[in-house]
Every structure is written in C-alpha cells, then in structure tokens.
Amino acid sequence: MRKLPQGLKLGVATAAYQIEGAWNFADKTPNIWDTLCHNNPESISDGTNADDACKSFEFYKRDIDMLKFVGVDFYRFSISWPRLLPNGFANKISEIGYEYYNNFINELLANNIEPVITMYHWDLPQNLQDLGGWANPLIADWFGDYARVLYKLFGDRVKMWVTINEPKQIGLMGYGMTRMAPALNATGIGEYLTAKNIVMAHARSWHIYNEEFRDTQKGVCGITIATDFREGVTDSPEDLEAGLDAIEFEVGLYSHPIFSSKGGFPERVIKRVGARSAEQGYPNSRLPEFTPEEIEYVKGTSDFYGFNHYSSKFYTRSAYKPGTYAIPSYDDDIGADFTYLDYEKGAVPHVTVIPHGIRKALTWVKDNCNNPPIFITENGFGTFGGLKDATRISYYRRYLDSILDAIEQDGCNVVSYTAWSLIDNFEWSSGLSIKFGLFEVDFDDENRKRTARASALWYKKLISTRMLDSNDDDIPELVEHIF
Ligand code: BGC
C-alpha cells in the first residue's frame, strides 16, 4: 500500500467531439472531424462517426452523476469551438452553445466538481480549415479571439484552462499524415508549419489571459503536450542519439519554445531539418523560424505543463535507403526508426504497458522544462470492451506506482492526475471499437446506457481512501451501477 501525496488532485477527462453528439443541433456548424467522417468514412476503422457519440449534449446530467459517483475532484472536458462560435470567428456567439456549457459548468460546481476546460481538442470549425486551419499563421488571432470569449463567458467560475490538446497529434497525424482530420498528408511540411502556429496561438491566448483576466479571475492557463517517452533501444551511442532526436522531434518541438530558458525550436530539430532541406534543394529550411521577438513572446507562457502519457517507444538510427521515404518526410528528418519492443499491448498499438516510461517522461519534463508544476491531463488504457477490465486496473495501478516514484524519488512536481476516460467514446480513427472508459457505453441503446466497469469502482476506492494498493489480483467485485 502506498499513500498518495496530500493535495494530489484526481479527476477524469473527455473531449467534446468524442462524447457530445448533436453534431448539427441548432446553429452548430461542422468541424473538421464531421467533414472527415462524413466524406471519407473509410478513414475510420469501423466506419462510424461521432454524429451522436455518447449523446452527452443531451444526457450531460448523467455524466455528472457518474462523476459524483466516482468522487472526482475535477472534470476535464473540452468546448466545441463551432458549437460556441458557429462562424469560427468571434463575431457571433451561439445562444444555445453558450447555455449548454454555462449550465454544465454551473452543475459541476453545484456538485463540488472543479471544471477544467480544454479550449481545443481537435474539432476545428471547418470554415477555418478552408482558410488553411493550423497552417495559416492568422490562426493565432482567431484562436486568441475565441479564448477571450471563453474567459469572458466562463472565467468567473473556471479557474483552470488548457489551451490546446496535443499539438503533435494535430500537426503530425492531421497535416503530415492522414490518420486524423484534416488528413492532409503533407509530411515534412505540415508538422512544422502547424508546430509554429499552434505554439503562437497558445502563447497569444495565454497573453490575453495574463493581461486581461488574470488579476480578476485568478486562474491558471497552460498547454497539454503528448509526452510519451522516447529513448534508444540499447545504450549504444547510435541508439542513444536516435532516442534523443526522437524525443526532441516528438515532444521538444512544442515544449522547448514555451518551457526552456532559451526558447525557439530545439537545436537538434533545427539542425536535422535544415540539413535535409538543403540536401533536397529547398532554399530555406522546411522548419519555420521564430523571430527574436516571437521567441520572447512565447517563452514562459504556460502556468503548468499539461502532460498526456500513454506509453513509450524505442529507437534505433534509421537504416535509410534511397526510396524508403517520400521527399520530404518527417520520418526521414528524425532519421530514427521506432519499435514497440515486446511489452504487453492494449487494443490500440500506441498503448503498450511500460509503467517505468511515465517516470522517465516526468523526469524528462522536470529536467528539460525548468521543473514546472505538472498536471497529468491524460493517462489510460484501451480495450475491446467488457466490464471486468482487470488489464485496465493493472495499467492504472502500475502507472500510478511509477508516478509516485517520480514524485517521491525524483522530485517531480506533479499536481494532479487525470484518467482517460470517464466513458467509452469516439476514439478518432478507431471509431467506436476501442474502449477507454471507466464506464461502458451501450452505443446500440438510444439512451446510451452507461454501466460502471470494475475500473470505475477501483478508481472510486482510490479517490476515497487515497491509498494505492499493490496487488494486481485485487479486482473490485462487480456490483451493477447503471447511469
Ligand atoms: C487524446 C484522446 C484520445 C486518447 C486515446 C489522446 O491522444 O487526447 O482524445 O482518445 O489519446 O487514444
């Protein structure tokens, strides 16, 4: 048995597109995932979409009942940008969108649950995508205007803001690949344009909070970065270098401009992309530069490090042969090949169970990002379903154990922990087939019956006792709890 540190806050998370449904209710306009799922259903492994999802727009009070049942300190959820601002721009606020989120926040507070709002969890208004989306530098202003609306409407009651969830997934998978909306497949270009614009948009929204709202609202505002750990497969100098390059491309690209003392993109990324771009005949590096003013504008613009972590990957120096990659290519720029090694796997390949990886990732953040307060904004395990989810409980237990090591032995400043996710939901390109919920959702039932899994009961007990047990066989007895 291990005692959780006093004051460590425990919560759960979801995101608007993954749970709300009501995709075209009232004046809501389409987002980039509506477009992808409707126009290219073959992009989603089971052909589903999130038109209805968990119907949380309709049944949000039941979600709150579940949060109460588990006893969480806070709930991290996201706002659908085109539900609140149907034009994408801040010239029109939807009455219905406003009322929905306003009631939701009030209801959480009435039940003593702290609202933690993510402003952007991947559902960009389609009309802004048509103007280039995250590849257009003007998005820093569009996002800033949206953020200001949020602070004005809800900041009297919401004290914790996550600006943007996981820049890498937005830029790499959406612009560099076709795994996520808008599926642009512009590898070697899209990742870097979006990296700069996302960081600038984040900084803009932080400055707006800092200068216009912080004094009166007294909250915190920061970014969430996917911080799965990356390292060499072995300790050979080549593998070590490959691991260092990988973590700078995959994490440092977003954390370095904001959290390091030097600012700007990481040196390793600047060098590698610059050299490859020159070899390929580009007149300039494909990695945009930050001007000295921009470097200063961005540095220090996060009150905490929002840390999402699912697993780790291991790298060797790539055995590049001409013709292996498209030109240009992000993978070629990193120059490192990854493998998952032989660890236990979940239902999605990116979640292999490597508990000590979270400790390494937390200490990497401590050492490379000026020892910030770390809010673990996501951690979780996907399965193919079933109420007796012993593998998920074991994952949570072992990862939390490793987090406690990072806190107690490495001095990482972890303030909160968030389980992903409250309920089964639309798991992006895996559709409805992969389940991350503490609660099962019956997607065949028009009322979307929600049933507590063993993991919900386990997490409830963890929160009430604040003791982490170390026995993997200790699965709570499944008593039926339906919502
Ligand atoms: C995302 C979630 C997603 C989870 C599980 C994270 O990268 O923020 O939206 O459901 O991973 O794959």
Automatic annotation (TrEMBL):
SUPFAM superfamilies recorded: (Trans)glycosidases (SSF51445)
Swiss-Prot/TrEMBL catalytic activity: beta-D-glucosyl-(1<->1)-sphing-4-enine + H2O = sphing-4-enine + D-glucose; a beta-D-xylosyl-(1<->1')-N-acylsphing-4-enine + cholesterol = cholesteryl 3-beta-D-xyloside + an N-acylsphing-4-enine; Hydrolysis of terminal, non-reducing beta-D-glucosyl residues with release of beta-D-glucose; beta-D-galactosyl-(1<->1)-sphing-4-enine + H2O = sphing-4-enine + D-galactose
Superkingdom of the source species: Eukaryota
EC nos: 3.2.1.21, 3.2.1.46
Claim: Hydrolase is one of the keywords in the record: yes
Family, per entry: Belongs to the glycosyl hydrolase 1 family. Klotho subfamily.
Name of protein: Cytosolic beta-glucosidase
Protein source organism: Pararge aegeria aegeria
Gene this protein is translated from: jg7542
